[in-house]
Every structure is written in structure tokens, then in C-alpha cells.
Design brief:
- This protein has 204 residues and is α+β, with helices and mostly antiparallel strands.
- Strand 1 and strand 2 form a beta hairpin.
- The longest helix is centred in the middle third of the chain and has 28 residues.
- The protein is elongated.
Length: 204
């Protein structure tokens, strides 16, 4: 999708600027089909706003003067003039994007990653010691290098964070799902029951 912070937004005075440049107090226009770039309050006009990405509510909600609207929601029909209450980074969608970034950091604390970390703590020294002993016994430095390179745990050590990062990014980008940690992904493997609410969105 289009990065909402790079989208061009028009203020009521005709000035055009990127969503990232909006600051609290700016009054901007949002037309039908456009995504609301930052959190704000409706100051003029009325519209039906699709908030399904934010709340899970399937039906568009009517927004009138003095109603709050949130970044990431889409104007389904109508037209709005909105006074920004937050900048892009502190708006609803900006906070979600920050959660995704934090999830990529937290994924290293997953259960499987901790197991890999513990294994690597003794595996790597064991490989080096073995390589050193073989090199001394055979009086061949090349043997040391061969064993170290062959026994390097880089693939094992790097596979888990790579897979978690790719999965979290894919779920966020393509399916609009926010996964807060790698451990949450791992827990899906042992999950037996899934409870869903919001009839009409997740369930029929």
C-alpha cells in the first residue's frame, strides 16, 4: 500500500504538504475514498467513515462536526474538513507502525530463539575448541579453519529472527494483522481454540 505519511494532503488554504508534515492545529481536506492521514476532529461537513481496519466494525460510521476521526480510516462517502490533533507519528496508525517495529525487536525473545541462544553459548566454544585440538594434533592450521567454517552456527542462529521478521512483516503488510512478538507466532502452533467476536467482520 501507499505510505500514508508520504501522501500529499491539501489544507483548507490550498497549501499542499505531506502527511508527515502535518502538525496539530492544521485543518486539512479529506475526500471520498481517501485515507485520513492523522488523528483529528471534524470541523466542517459530514461523511461516512470506514473504520474497519481500526475497530473491526464492518459498517461505515457517520462522522459529524466535533467527532473524532483516526488515521488509517477511510472516507467511504462524503467530504470532511478535519483539524489535526496529532502529528503522523503520534496518530493511531503511527502507533501501530511503531508497534510493528517494536515487534521485530521483541521477536528475539521468543521461546525458540532463547533455546537457540542457549545452544549457541556452548556450541560455538565447542566448535572452536574441537578445531583447535584437531589443528594441534595434525599440526595443520588449515584444519582449524575448515572445522570453524563448517561448524559455524550462523544459519541456526540467524534463521529464527529472520523467519519471525519476515512473517510479522508479511502479516502486517498483506493482511493488516498486528503481531506484537515472535512468541505470539510460535504459540499458534499449540493453539487449540480460537475465540472471535465482531459478528459480520471476523465471523458470519
Amino acid at each position: 500500500g501507499i505510505d500514508v505519511q508520504k501522501r500529499v494532503v491539501r489544507l483548507i488554504d490550498g497549501t499542499e504538504l505531506s502527511a508527515a508534515e502535518l502538525k496539530p492545529g492544521d485543518v486539512f481536506l479529506v475526500h471520498m475514498g481517501e485515507q485520513i492521514p492523522v488523528d483529528g476532529v471534524v470541523v466542517k461537513d459530514t461523511a461516512m467513515v470506514d473504520e474497519s481496519r481500526l475497530t473491526g466494525e464492518a459498517l461505515p460510521q457517520q462522522k459529524n462536526v466535533d467527532d473524532m476521526v483516526y488515521s488509517g480510516s477511510i472516507v467511504h462517502s462524503g467530504f470532511l474538513q478535519v483539524k489535526a490533533s496529532e502529528n503522523a507519528a503520534n496518530s493511531f496508525q503511527g502507533q501501530i507502525e511503531d508497534e510493528v517495529r517494536q515487534a521485530r525487536i521483541r521477536q528475539r525473545t521468543s521461546r525458540f530463539q532463547r533455546i537457540v541462544d542457549r545452544v549457541a553459548q556452548w556450541y560455538t566454544p565447542a566448535v572452536i575448541v574441537t578445531a583447535a585440538l584437531v589443528a594441534i594434533l595434525q599440526r595443520n592450521v588449515r584444519q582449524f579453519l575448515v572445522i570453524v567454517v563448517a561448524g559455524c552456527p550462523c544459519a541456526l542462529y540467524g534463521a529464527t529472527p529472520l523467519v519471525h521478521t519476515a512473517a510479522i512483516s508479511q502479516l502486517s503488510r498483506k493482511h493488516k494483522l498486528l503481531v506484537k512478538s515472535g512468541s505470539a507466532l510460535e504459540s499458534l502452533a499449540s493453539m487449540k481454540v480460537l475465540g472471535l467476536d465482531k459478528t459480520g467482520t471476523l465471523t458470519n
